[in-house]
Protein 1
Amino acid sequence: MTFRKISCSMLVALLLVFVGLSPALSDNYPSKPITLIIPLGAGGSHDLNARVFTSVIPSYLGQAVVVKLMPGAGGQTGTAAAIKAKPDGYTLIFTHNYIDQLQPLLEKLPYDTIKDLKSVCRINYGASSLVVRADKPWKTLDEILAYGKKNPGKLIFTTSGNWGATMTPGARVLLQAGVEATYIPYKGGGPAMQALLAGDGDFMMSFPSQAGPLVEAGKIRALASAGDKRVFTDVPTLKELGYETGTMDRIVMAPKGVPEDRMKILRDAFAKLNGDKTYKKLMQRIGENTEYMDGPDYDKLRPANQEAYRLLVKKISGQ
Amino acid sequence: MWDNFLQGILLTARWDTFGMMGLGLMLGMFVGALPGFTTIMAMAVLLPISFFMDPMVGIPFLIGVYKGGIYGGSIPAILVSMPGTGASVATTFDGPALTKKGKSRKAMEMALFSSVCGDLSSDILTILFIGPIAIMAMKIGPPELAAIILLSLIIISATTSGLFIKGLVMCFIGLFFSMIGQDPLGGMSRFTFGFFEIKSGIPLLPMLIGLFAIPEILQAVEKKITTFVAEEFNLKSGERLTLKEFRRSIRTILRSTAIGTALGIIPGVGQVVSAFVGYAAAKNASKHPETYGKGELDGIAAAEAANNSVNGPTLVPLLTLGIPGDKVTAILLGAFIAQGLRPGPQLFAEQGPLVFALLVAMVFANIMFVVLGYLTIPLFAKVVTIRKSALLPLTAIFAFAGSYVYRSDPFDLLVLVFFGIFGYTAKKLNFDVTPMVMGYILGPVLEYSFGQTLNLARGDTLHYIFAARPITAIILAITPFITAGLWWRGVRLRRKHMKELPSEG
């Protein structure tokens, strides 16, 4: 019975393959490549950041980290997939605070990110600057806000998408200043900037990699920036001006239930990565900082952030 | 500027630049030819490699992947009616029909030459007119985009095979499918019935493979012949593209190049649309439109020249403002900044020679591609000569595998099967699925730009369009006339057809 023999041996081989892949039996984690889900599309800043750190981290983790782009439903498709994944430390997600902490407030989702995901670390953050086209009259943040207050709904705020990384910090400033503006979402920061330059918008929030060359060329003017440190040396931070906003935190997370020893291996690897020279150099080249934060510290910030967003969502959409 | 240009040429004259560019072209072509793997995925995966290379090696490498990938997508489209990328859908109209006549090699050669012609001329136009293109791109805002998409949808619905009204019906079905999932502006769920899986909408690639490849497999099964390529056609002789055939299509290629270059200026519309519009225009201009969709070489030339000539102008916002117009240029932007080049208004002033070097590299990439592509075509052409009993199951496996690897979501297999049945039924009832695909792809863009327009107008839309948006007003004003013209043309053609073939009436 050659056929039976063959099928038997194939079955055994298959079983062996599965056993070999099963992490439960091997304690030398990680023993196979780790999948990193990005719930966003190709070519975005998350993709680019991930390409940088996944090309350096194998030397600290001893395994490759494979990027898997899962865009869809504003980040929910990828997030759901990461939460559903087996909590064995072989599936991680590289996401940001608006998907993690704000999105669950907008509608009913089949998961609760704060409970279902635990932070490995914050890789860095993106601090956006409030910019206007160079020929607009406003020279300071106060001037544009004063104009907006006098003319409710007249200021056009071009954003990279509803409740995204550039709308939320801007909306927080507007709310604190009591200014009503018209929000126009675009598909990403690029088209939003193009609209601003074409004169279809009055102001927007823009990240340094995009705003930098345009500010230098004198096409746009930065009035204030998010974050603790100044982005442009002669432009104040929003904090200095008395406004509370946030940055876009790029965070690596794991589904809840990953064994503590494995979380520690991951966190240690990322901590070591942050001291790596090649990594720092590459991040600097793509115009990103390396303001790393350890996972447990970041987990402490998440509930508080969510409360701030809850207030914002309530005020703006009246929900 | 002339100095910069000359220095740029000197910068490209390096062996490693050409070597890596060739490697990129080949990699791109093979990845593009695999269903389910998109050019964008290939570029994203290969991006880190370019970080560690010299700018004049790393970026031409990625450009190679990009150009190779787009052509690669047309290979399975021609052979087994499986569009590897959205841009190659229009190529499935005539490609498989030619393959069945034993002319697959001819079709692939036509695709290669028209791709390269379209790409090359659009690159040269871009180098010459980078300034004016940048200014024109700025004039296209949401209202203009909405008007252009509306007009494109009408043109495409009107030029499908069959009745105008049938085309419109399919277009509306496509628009409806595009609404399933989260609405693009507000993020509300529509038609999801609480199922989380369809919240992100219907995935494009499984839908395309289902609509185009599955009906083709089913139809081949219906006909009980043993080989996919009819035996009476000799594969050895007469399969190559002749100079005469190419010359016959030059007008089409030029027209498609003009269309592609113009559509490339408009941010966010891209290759898919220009392939369809180029095809529609060629069919409209032809003296024998009835041969389109039944194995017309000119149809391949129209689609391929159009989708490739988008490449030049899409780079303009990236190079002049540092703003990526689509995903491909977003990845290129990543490669630029990782190399320490920050595209933006000052890039030309600071790095003039390098920018020209890259543009010149794109031109050379095309020339190189003719040679590499030509040499590999016989390899691919052999694929369809295997027995049908092996080829059809293989195609089916690739259809399922390709749909799955796109997002690794089992739900996509259901989508594939659903649209496979849908496509087959539509074919039997003589409904052309093209307007549906267009409606599906353009629906969200139309909805988005229309919503933005309403916001921009602050409630007074008509006044806003006619007072502040003259380009939009003109496009909207000519739309009814074009629609009427196309409809009348359709009526006349059918009458003529009926007179000639009274029995088929």
Protein 2
Amino acid sequence: MGVEVKVEGLTKSFGRQTIWRDVTLTLPAGEVSVLLGPSGTGKSVFLKSIIGLLRPERGTCVINGTDVCSCSERELYEIRKLLGVLFQDGALFGSMDIYDNVAFPLREHTRKSESEIRRIVGEKMELVGLTGAEHKLPGEISGGMRKRAGLARALVLDPEIILCDEPDSGLDPVRTAYLSQLLIDLNAQLDATILIVTHNINVARTVPDNLGMLFRRELVMFGPREVLLTSDEPVVAQFLGGRRVGPIGMSEEKDQATMDRERAHAEAGHMDAELAEDVRGVPPQLEPTAGLPERMAVRRRKDRVMRMLSSLPAGARQSVLASLTDADRHRYGLTAPLPQRPAPVTSVHGSLHEVARTPRDLGAAFTRRPWGGRR
Amino acid sequence: MSSTNAAGFPGVAALRQVGRMATLGWEVLKNTPRRPFQRREFIQQCWFFVSVTWLPTALVSIPFGAVISLHLGSLTQQIGAQSFTGAAGALAIIQQASPLITALLVAGAGGSAMCADIGSRTIREEIAAMEVLGVSPIHRLIVPRVLAAVVVSMLLNGLVSVVGVLGGYFFNVVMQGGTPGAYLASFNALAQLPDLWVSEFKALIYGFVAGIVAAYRGLNPSSGPKGVGDAVNQAVVVTFLLLFLVNVVITGIYLQIVPAKGM
């Protein structure tokens, strides 16, 4: 099973510019998490802090019992053997061809024979659809291919934790869909902890078990996917909807006058390009390809979410309950039958509350940042 | 603006750079004996260093030897000590000129190429990727390069000495009508074996300094391709300044320790 990553109170600044402060979140072992955020909110910096390339000023990030923010160089190298990291541009070694790039970790860290290395590399190359490009140099292939080659290299040691920095940037929608499916399949096969940093809404809505968002130098929220996808938090709603109306501006912050003007504009009937299609609600999550083992993370996550159900906001709770099968309901001791209806719901019904055994106002109290970075 | 920053007094940024460079130097020394030694990378880098430096070095050392020879020749002629031209020439070339030419070429041709190589790897995140793959870039990339710089600059030093002395001989004998026998006979009148040792020692230090500065600037470029260009530029300038400083220090110490040869 994958390894848990526990981040607490992490703060990073360059000079006097704070990138983000007091970020607290836990990537549950073996689950897929996505970290969202507008461009320039330090998502990549966060990723680099987790792998120990950057040292944050305050806070801890514990992987497998080691705090990567304060451990020695040697411990860091040990921890990194658990990690597979996909960099934004693939970060392939320009002087080696694709084959040698993918074989590099095997040659450095294992004593496998050349024929065995060839077998493993061939397998991973096929996984990312690069068979036949083995002997090209990174400079001779397209950005998308470099990215896939980078992923193959990250996977070659069967890592416990896979970190992807914008796996979708520079890829067309079809390849992005393939890549999303690949990550879910990997999770099913390896049971690895996966963190994807992205600003692709589609990936965020369909791939992860958990979803978080960075904005204005802090973690707005992090929690089970239902929480963010049903959130009323203006920043989250705006980002997931891809609208102009809301607190996110072209530059990071937006003043009141601009906000008012845009709202008036929208009310007058003007629509943003993205708004043509309403993308709110909780869509079904991607399933592993048929024939692969079931994702162990699904069951673990369900158990975890059910334990914290009473602290979830009403919308999220509703959505979680609606996603349960009959067997699940039996397992968690929920006897009351649920009305049949599609997953996204906005109103709360009394019967559901009886099922969840929580008073209505508890949910309301938690609508704002229950899992956020602030304490 | 930056008064609230940690920087306390003027020049602290420069000191910080020096400190980090020295740390890198120490890291390289510490990683040198580590197994497995990157033999392949080392040989490739040696070859690369030789290929960019040997020809310019040889070409620069011919006029250098000639100039020394011409100056000394006219001087010694005036005081009637023409037969000592060879002695002074050899001393000047072996002890001073040759390590300096080596330094200029190792920094200017070898170091700049190395800095550009490392710098472009850094901005393409190759160095970061290597660290994340659990491989120390210092052990894997920097150590073989610095060692290659050291070895090649020691070899180049020999090349410069030979070519420079030959150039001096040619100009003295052919252009100024000096006697070949006298030039060769006075050869070891002033120069002695420690001169050769100190010359090689200087070359070793120069190669190391050039390698470390190039690696340091290459690993820490400001962002973007322009950052790499600036880093290369700075690496060459900083190396030159350091090397001339080191030369003064080593020469000063050497002259105190090793007595000049009596006649």
Protein 3
Amino acid sequence: MTFEQGVFYFLAIVTVVSAVMMLLQRNPVNSALYLILNFFCLGGLYLTLNAQFIAMVHIMVYAGAIMVLFLFVIMLLNLGDDKSLRQHLGLRMYLGIAFSVGLFLELLYILGFSSANNYTQQSPTAVEMGTVEYIGKILFTKFLFPFEITSFLLLAAIIGAVMLAKKKIIQ
Amino acid sequence: MFCCGVLGVVVRRNAIVIFMSIELMLNAVNLSLVAFSSFLGDSTGQMLVFFVMVVAAAEAAIGLAIIIALFRNKQTVYVDEINILKW
């Protein structure tokens, strides 16, 4: 096993374990902290896949912005522990577990029998493809229109968030 | 990881944890997109990941705003106590 493989397996295991731990935590704050660990490991995985720009953006956007937002809302609402999780849901929990295990087996089946096994080597152009220079170039030429659309989407999100979260004006 | 996200959405009652599970699903898809883009040598996957991140950020902001508005009205974030859509 080479060094890269070791790094990959370590990051992958930590990612999956932290995702499972996030589900099992009762306190939402603990869930959020496990999710942050998950995001950092994902950033590492992107780095092993030669996607430096995506890795940095991922760390900044998710671990920086979104998780701060989540923690802020959790603290703002002052949530306690999620009590009586087990006794509350009998049937729904079993159905949910059966559903997700079935989905997992389906994904395994698809990945096991598809052509994905042929891709054991990274493409030679993958190294230059993840750089900021390449991404910036392609973002402003080939993907200029979607880029502009996302700016509108973000503007709509800002306005919507402010409208939803503001207090009603008392007359 | 995607299945963990699905499980979280279905099983948990806390709306905030459900949102985190949705983020988890988006990230699982992002990871597979980056992997395929890297192995196929096609940069479209990375662009798509970039746009997915933008949409996830917008979605998180809107969703948390909805949760705050809901909490202000109902004093709860547990989804099975919110039944105002029933008739």
Protein 4
Amino acid sequence: MSQKKKLRKTKSFQRRQDKYGYLFMMPWILGFLVFTLIPFVMTIYLSFTEVKQDIRGFNIAFTGIYNYRQLFLVNTDFTPALVSFLGMIVPYTLVVVIMSFILAMLLNSIVRGKAVYRTIYFLPVVVLSGPVMYQLMNLTPQVEGQVNELYHSFLIRMIQSYSPQAAAAMVSLFDNLSVILWFTGIPIVLFINGLQKINPSLYEAARIDSATSWQLLWKITMPIIRPTALIVTVFTIVQLGGMDTINPVLVMIKERTANTSGGFGYAATISWIYSLIVLLIIGAAFVLFRERKIKETHKYW
Amino acid sequence: MAKRIGKAVTYLLLTCIGYIYLEPIFQMISRALMSSADVINPSIEWLARNPTLNNFRVAAKVLKIPGSLINSMGFSALLALLQTFVAAMTGYGLSRFRFRGKNFWFVMILLAFILPTALLMIPRLIIFILAQQATGIQFLGTPIPQVLMAVLGQGVNSTILILICWNFFNLVPYSLDEAAMIDGAGPLQTFYHIAVKLSVSTVLIVFLFAFVWNWNETYQTSTFLGGSMDLLPAKLSVFDSQFEGIANAGVGSTSNFKINEAYKMAATLISIAPLLVLYGFVQKQFIQGIENTGITGE
């Protein structure tokens, strides 16, 4: 009898939790359904259709894989845009993640002046926007020849002889280093936060066992910081991808979306393929940073 | 001794990299002060020979200051306010109640951040056009679409705002909620009187982030709002094309203003100045806000 009563009580407790929980979650869930989930499914559907708009509304005609064939076999802009997007996102993300990790390590090792440096490194987060980036990246150097020097440097020319694309990517990387570094603001803070949570006695114990700083970095810091690195990587990919100044595919989608008289289906195809590739890159980051099984020998430190 | 050298190298590196960070801003200031003769003078790299503030005057005119400044502030503040409210509610719901399907929704919140905005734009646009036809109210070209999305938690970087709130509410002891409930407060009252009032500083941080992100967002704004409202970043993005007509009309047809780097940089500087001032006042809170997201694995 009493057990039954108790059961009823937990049931009513659960019901109340459900009620209040969903009460607070309601706006978000509603928004998610209307503005994220339905659009997500709709984009996939629209990518197989041709959308025409007339006075009475939308006229959606199913066209099968016509858009896809157009995109890859007829359209000559898409594939190069996609390639240059990949040539941007991969090296830029690498630079942002590695630089923010190094800076976080450096900042973590000093005591005086830490706040000042952090303020400087975080500043770009506040001012970074597409138009500002556009103006900065198209700024011609006051003194002619600064860029040209880089183009003709020995290293770049050497790379150029193997792969012109790689050389172009590298030159753009160095040209825009300042603006790329502007994406490290939030990652640095996340990394510092992660570093500070590492128990210092781990380092002490390893040092007593005569581990070098290099070993400390690879055997203690890196494995512990891995989840943070994953978050930073995903965050960086999302941030970089959303900047139309450096993302030619986004510009393509934007132009097609602005054209309301039609072409929505085609635009949907572009954005779907593009998003699929972004999601694949994020998936690759997950695989790269996944928890690895601790080897037998490391179990009994 | 080796330690001291190591430390000196660390500081040197940090300072050099800090310089790289600030270099674009130094460039902006240096260029913005140059007269048109200085801009084409190759012997001048940093310091203008004839510093002038005229660039700012012209750039402000093209950017439609003060109208666009007031619009931008109002628009960003409105969206930020709504986003903050929803983020606090969602964060509280996640932090306080063990409702069924909670983990699922949590994953969805993270997923909403990863999905590229470009993927969702076309259906969103179609939804608004359909709603427009169904209700007869003009949606596109007004702030309504973005207000709606902010109210329903789908604004810019909403996920991060929710995570900041969620993590902070996790730190507020649950016994305070219980005490309030024993005294007869309902869940909404508890939310307001306990969670929100205790975390005014966090709510403020969330608001500031939302403000800055909404200010800097141009993709959705250009699609949904178009050019129907003068906003500062939007004006900056069309600065080059709008320059000559407006600048010449304002000063008189005899003088011929040619666009140059000095005007562009003055305009860029004007457009980020409000954010820089804001950052000057609350930079510490900004950094703490990201530290408090708790997404680094607890």
